[in-house]
Amino acid sequence: MTVSSLPYAVFGVTGRTGAAAADALLQAGQRVRVVVRNPAQSQPWADRGAEVAVADLTDVASMTRALRNVRGAYVVCPQQYGREDLFEQAAWMADAVAKAAVAAGVPRLVALSSVGADRDCKIGWIGMNRVFEQRVGDAGVPTIFLRAAYFMENWTPFVHQAVRSGTLPTFLAPPQRRIPMVATLDVGRAAAALLQEEWTQTRAVTLTGPQDYSPHDVAAVVSATIHKPVDVAVLPPADWPLALAGAHFSKAALAGFTEMTVGLNSSHIDIKSDASAAQRAGTTALEQVIAAIARSQQPG
């Protein structure tokens, strides 16, 4: 690992993985350029010595400026679940990233993707990641698509319910089946590590946690943290729209969530389905993430 006079550009620093990537790079002594849509969100990073670029992920000109004269970039395209055209919006952002990366001459990209992006159908939301991989991959810029497993932080609202009620709802079934999960902290750290490595070929890298986990494992961590029994309640598909009402998903987003979750439960979406992808594992255990979420809901 070497330190260059050129910075690494990091998108998504107002979210978990982007913040973790920028932090890891700064901790390593690297120069960092955070890319934000709202300049007001950049001050904490500027205070740490990061450069700041302002760009809109659908605007090629501002994206090109943000990506010019960098050593590499970590790109996160936020998915806008309240929109009926969320898949079209994701495609526009993918095109903008691809065009800007070429115009700016970016030497390499690490792009956040998802388990299942290698599948060509029945993947719901993950279809946005698949389009992203295709559009950016076709641009010819060396890119690692970081296919992350199920985020441990996805459990946050359900852990909150479990702390209040003693029951952990879940869309995943059967509840004893373990699947790969990963902490968002490890996703950001992996992105930072990959940016600092030497490589020139476009490829996919899967990222899991140190082991696989089930809904029962999540409930056990909550129970141990709050010192009360916690049951697991699998929500049937007919109840999913009501359970997600507070998320304000569009009809298209709800349909995409349903198809994706059915794919996860049937193992159609599987971290090992692409034999050509390299495999990495984070070090953050489920217990660390879930216990912290549960403690945040306890009085005092």
Terminal CA distance reads 44 Å
Rg to the nearest angstrom?
19 Å
Q: Please count the helical segments.
A: 11
CATH class of the domain at 8-150 and 182-208 and 270-283: Alpha Beta
Widest beta sheet: strand line-up: 3-2-1-4-5-6-10-13
The proportion of strand residues reads 15-25%
- CATH fold type of the domain at 8-150 and 182-208 and 270-283: Rossmann fold
Helix content: 40-55%
| Class from secondary-structure proportions | alpha/beta
Average of per-residue pLDDT values: 96
Secondary-structure element order, N to C:
EHEHEHEHEHEEHEEHEEHEHHEH
Please outline the major beta sheet. Answer: 8 strands, parallel
CATH superfamily placement of the domain at 8-150 and 182-208 and 270-283: NAD(P)-binding Rossmann-like Domain
Shape: globular
CATH architecture descriptor text of the domain at 8-150 and 182-208 and 270-283 = 3-Layer(aba) Sandwich
Low-confidence stretches: none
Number of strands: 13
List keywords for this structure.
300 residues; alpha/beta; Rossmann fold; 8-stranded parallel beta sheet; 3-stranded mixed beta sheet
3D structure, described in words:
There is one protein chain. The chain is α/β, with parallel strands linked by helices. It has a domain at 8-150 and 182-208 and 270-283: Rossmann fold (3-Layer(aba) Sandwich), CATH 3.40.50.720. It has helices spanning 16-27, 43-47, 60-67, 86-104, 126-138, 156-165, 184-196, 215-226, 240-243, 251-265, 286-296, and strands at 8-11, 32-36, 51-54, 72-75, 109-114, 143-148, 150-151, 167-170, 179-182, 203-208, 212-213, 231-234, 278-281. The strands form 3 sheets. An 8-stranded parallel beta sheet has the order 3-2-1-4-5-6-10-13, with helices on both faces. Strands 7-9-11 form a 3-stranded mixed beta sheet. A two-stranded parallel sheet has the order 8-12. The longest helix has 19 residues, at 86-104.
